[in-house]
Each structure stands twice: as structure tokens, then as C-alpha cells.
Amino acid sequence: MQTIAEPNTAAIKIDPIKVQELILNGGLKRYKVKNSKYNSLNFQEDKNKKGAIFGFRTKENMQAARGIVLTSLEALEENRDQFTHWTPNIFSYGGYTDETRLYVKGHKEYNLSQINCFVVDIDFKSAYERASVNEIIENTFKAGFYYVPTLVLKTTKGYHFYYSLKEPSFVSSANNYKSLRTARAISRSIKLAFAEKMNCVDVGCNNFGIFRTPNSDNIVSFNPEFQYYFDDLQEWSMFYAKNCVEENNIAAVADGKNNVRIKKYGKQINAAWFKALINANEIDCGAGQDLGRNNAVLTMSLACYSSGLTFQEALNMMEEFNINLTSPLEYMELERTVINAYSGEYKGAHKDHINALIHKWAKSDHMKELKTKTNGKVHRSLWHKHKKARTERQRVHKYEWQKDLFEWINKQVTPDKMVIETTYAAIQEGIGIPKSTLKELLKDLEQRGELFTETTRGRASRTYLTTRAMLIQSIYHNKKERAEKLVLALCELIPKCRSVVANFLKDASEQPVRTMQMELSELDTS
Predict the structure, then answer these.
(1) What's phi and psi for 295, nearest 5 deg?
(2) CA triplet 377, 380, 385: central angle to 5 degrees?
(3) Locate the Primase C-terminal domain: which residues (predicted)?
(4) Which of 153, 204, 398, 452 could lock 160 by a disulfide, CB 3.0 to 4.6 Å apart?
């Protein structure tokens, strides 16, 4: 791993052009079509479609869309260290809006042709409060995202974490841009995993927009051996969305401080008014009456929120709705509206807004059905009771106990101490959980491969436990020889870990560029 502690102070200099070339993943031509300095006649490009990226010399230029369209690596090299921002993913085309060729156009999401990487924007309140890269990676491991960044760039008050794809994902318009929607879901899951432990992640930033450009002064670390396959990230994202976001109730949005509430789907999204509104494709800006597309998306998103859908499910549903509109919203505006609905500031859609939207936009056939069922109003049966806060309830949900347990475990461990020696009584006292509930929780976590325990017999019995995250962190943070000794000692203490560790080390040695993640479905925890 090549690492630079501070810009301009590292013993090893990393060539930013090599970094850029790896990130771009063959999406640009090698040489310029016109005015090339090289004899490119004998060079044969591969058969993959080539596109364009955009470069900006300052943040102010970037905000004003004043930039340069680049279609070749040669042109990128000619501008070495001159760009502060760029688009690391490839667009089908790029152009200019003016005759003087100062202001660029084309960097819209539906113009994407090739996705090369996923980028997370981490922005602290000040440079002084900036956490270390290792601390951030440890936090992502604890959140279940077991991937090392390919590239880390230092920004004014934080970092940009790049996760580069081994093979690019090509975007097409087939099935309403299904490949793009899948990539968005992956990007969203990654950012939510970061936001679990840090409230400084920009969850709402453009997934495939403009980010910092690697240059000679801002590369903190570059790990070309850590590139990932799109399918692996997709599998992880699906697992994370289903288990971590839904079950653990930790899908942080809106600055990472509010939780998405998860429960069985309620009646709101099955109501006649919801069906009528989501099928209304003539909704426009509302002509200043606050009854347009934004309000419709917000109202339906709040219905999804109160019905227990995850943020990603609501976003996917609203995206389908938006695509079918005669005059759709920009994707960024759509995403911001859904984030607002899931911010925790609202408990559900207001009946006054529902009635106003329905009477203005619902189609006649849906309107007739709605009036038949509700006499023209939203019936009380379509609203349901909202979940009480934990402090107001007698019972504690399983996912809440799980969160408490992992927080308690994380306080006991260090990189050199990946096994906790404890007792059931100590855990009960630590998190206030009943013994029967604790046994059931530990059994469930073991079956899912997230926790490994071994309990000795007798009156003075002790319980040894470790987590999957602790295992991988220890291997990652220690040199090979030391890690192997630690792992051997652990396997002697808790034999159940043996197959998991063996599979992980085998993967790491045979496929060093593939994901460090172990899919739970593949683990042998018997």
C-alpha cells in the first residue's frame, strides 16, 4: 500500500496521471484526434466505446460550469495538476454552451456511458476536526462495509474516498436505465454505511457527478490492488439494504442523524389515493400553487416512510414515478425531496396536501374509485399509529438489542485484542438485556455469521466472543506473519471461526484484487 501522510512530504511520490488512468478504466481515447504530439497511426484502440469527461480549474469555475471537455488521456496529461475537479465517470458526449467554448454541457446523469468508480465525499466542520483515514476505514468496517478505498484524496476539510471498479459498468437506456439505477443503489448503500458512524458524509451529493481530481498535492493513499467487481458490490448493497438498513434501523439520512423507521408495510401505500397519485403522469411544476411535482413526490415519500418502506425502496418508487411524468424533475431534486421526507422531521403525509393533490391531478377513473371508497376525503383508516420512541416503550426491539450489543463490544476491543473474555452476567449488566433475550440474540447472530462465541463449562464458566468485523480488522491492520499468529490463536480459542478465516485468507491470496468482503451467505458457521 502506497501511503502519503501529508502532501509533499512523502518519500514515495505517486504519479497522478497513472492514478487518473487507472480510475478512468479505458473510457477515453489514448491520443487526441487532432493536434496530437504523438504518432498514433500505429496505435489500435480497444473496441469499447469511448466518451468524454469534464475538468475544472477552480471550485468557482466548477460551480459556474466553466470547464474543459476532455476526450483523451493525452489531453488530460497536457493539463497535469491544472484541474481541481473532474468527472471520474465517463459521459457519452460533452460540449460547450457558448461560442467561446468556456462553459460546458453534457455532465448530466442520463448522459453517462460508463461508471468507473464510487466516490464518497467526507466533509468535517473544519480541517482541525478531520479524522484519520484509518479511523474512517475502521468505522466503515464496523458498519459492515469491508472494502479498502482504492484512492483517498485530501480536500479542504475532509476527504474523497474512491472505490474503483476492476471492470467498468456500462450504462444503457434499456429497462429505464436499470444499470444506472442499480449503480445508484450501490452508491447510496456505501454512503449510508459511512454515515452510520460519521455525521460528516454528504449522503445527498450527486452519485456520479464532479469530484476532486488526483494531483501531486492531494493524494493521501493509493491502493491499485484494491479494485472491485460491480457484481460483488451489488451483492453487498442488496445484503446491506435488506439486513443492515432495515433490520438494524440505521439508514441515516439528512446529515446522518435521523433514522428510517422500519416495520411491516402499512395501509398508506396501499390506499386508493396513493394509487391515484402515483399514476398521475401529467403533474407539472404547479404554477406556484405548491401543488406540483415536488409536493407530490414529498407527499408520496412520506406515505412510504410512514408505511415502513426503506429509503432506497421509496427512492426507486419515486424514480419510476418521475420517469413517467411528462415533465420530470431533475434527479438531484428528486433525491433531495425523498431525503427530506426521510429526515425524521415529519411523521407522515398530511391529509390536506393529499386532498389538494388528488383533486388537481388524479385521473378521472382513479378519482371515481377514490370517491367511491372515501366519499371524496381521505378516510381515517388510511392513517396509522406512528411508532413510539424507545424510551416510551416497555418492549425493546431485537435490532435495538443487537445495536446495543455491538456498541458494547466495540468499546472493549483494540486492533490487538480481537477476542473478549466475559460472562453472560457482564453482558446483561453492560446493556441491560434479559438473559433469555441475550441467549436468543447470540444464537441468531451466530447463525448469521456475524458473531462467534465459545463458553466454558462449570460454575466459573467464561464466554469468549469475537465478531466478523473484528476478525477482518485484525487481519487488515497487522502484518501477514503477526496476523496469521493471531488468527491461529483465535481459532484455538473459538473453533467456529476456523472456516471463516480460512475462506477469507484463501480469497485474499488467490484473488488479491477482488473484494475483501465475505458474503454472509457464503460463510460456513456450522
Answers:
(1) -65, -35
(2) 140
(3) 290-346
(4) 153
Give yes or no for a contact between 344 and 258, defined as CB atoms under 8 angstroms apart: yes
Mean pLDDT of the chain: 77
CA distance 120 to 211: 9
Q: What is the pLDDT of residues 114-164, one digit of tens each?
A: 999 999 999 988 888 888 888 898 888 888 888 889 999 999 999 999 999
User: What mean pLDDT do residues 42-62 have?
Assistant: 86
Interacting residues of 462 by C-beta distance below 8 A, sequence separation 6+: 421, 422, 423, 455, 456
pLDDT at 207 over 90: no
Orientation of helix 468-477 relative to helix 480-493, angle to 10°: 150
CA distance 260 to 397: 15
Neighbouring C-alpha atoms within 13 Å toward the C-beta of 64 = 9
Q: Mutual orientation of helices 311-323 and 331-341 as an angle, nearest 10°?
A: 140
- Which of 33-48 are b and which e, b meaning 16 or more Cβ less than 10 Å from the residue's Cβ? eeebeeebeeeeeeee
Contact status, residue 447 vs residue 525, Cβ threshold 8 Å: yes
476 burial via Cβ count (<10 Å: 0-12, 13-18, 19+)? middle
Q: Which CATH class is domain 398-522?
A: mainly alpha
Q: What is the pLDDT of residues 357-409, one digit of tens each?
A: 887 787 655 555 555 555 544 444 444 445 566 676 777 777 788 888 888 88
- Mean local confidence (pLDDT), 166-192: 88
Domain positions in the chain: 2-234, 268-382, 398-522
296-311: pLDDT as tens digits: 999 999 989 888 888 8
Mutual orientation of helices 174-197 and 230-239 as an angle, nearest 10°? 60
Q: Are 252 and 189 in contact (CB under 8 A)?
A: no
Predicted local confidence at residue 258, as pLDDT: 31
The number of beta carbons lying within 10 Å of the beta carbon of residue 68 is: 21
pTM beyond 0.70: no
Alpha-carbon distance 241 to 185, whole Å? Answer: 9
Distance CA 141, CA 87 (A): 27
Q: Is residue 271 within 8 Å of 381, Cβ to Cβ?
A: no
* Cα 89 to Cα 518: distance, rounded to the nearest angstrom: 27
For the chain, give me the number of helices (H) and strands (E)? 19, 15
DSSP 222: E
Report in angstroms the alpha-carbon separations of 272 from 225, 264, 278, 283. 53, 19, 10, 18
In 3D space, the residue among 68, 69, 117, 67 whose CA is nearest the CA of residue 89 turns out to be 117
10 Å CB burial of residue 238 (0-12, 13-18, 19+) is: middle
